[in-house]
Amino acid sequence: MVNCVICGKSDLNNDTIGINKKLLGENISNYYCLDCLAEYLECTVDELLDKIEDFKEEGCKLFK
Ligand SMILES: [Zn+2]
Fold first, then answer.
1. 55 CA to middle of ligand 1, Å?
2. What residues pack around ion ligand 1 (CB closer than 5 A)?
3. What is the predicted pLDDT for the residue at 58?
4. How far apart are CA 14 and CA 56, in angstroms?
5. What is the pLDDT of residue 63?
């Protein structure tokens, strides 16, 4: 089980974990929930969701 390092939100889902790895590196040990990741990257949650869909369409292995 993976929790958000900022707000402690628990049980981050595979999509959230995948986008963390995709944007921050596959070897990271701290994960952010989508809200905190959006704030950290100065973008919106909707933009992150769009990126997740894009990566899925590309068949990225992190999103299976
Ligand atoms: Zn969070």
1. 22
2. 4, 6-7, 9, 33, 36
3. 94
4. 12
5. 87
With beta carbons less than 8 A apart as the criterion, state whether 39 and 33 touch: no
Q: Which amino acid is at 49?
A: L
18-41 in b/e burial notation, b at 16+ Cβ within 10 A? bbbbbbeeeeeeebbbbebbbeee
- Kindly report, residue by residue over 1-60, the tens digit of the pLDDT: 899 999 999 999 999 999 999 999 999 999 999 999 999 999 999 999 999 999 999 999
Distance from the CA of 54 to the center of ligand 1, in angstroms? 22
- What is the Å distance from ligand 1's center to 44 Cα? 13
Q: How far is the CA of 58 from the centre of ligand 1 (A)?
A: 27
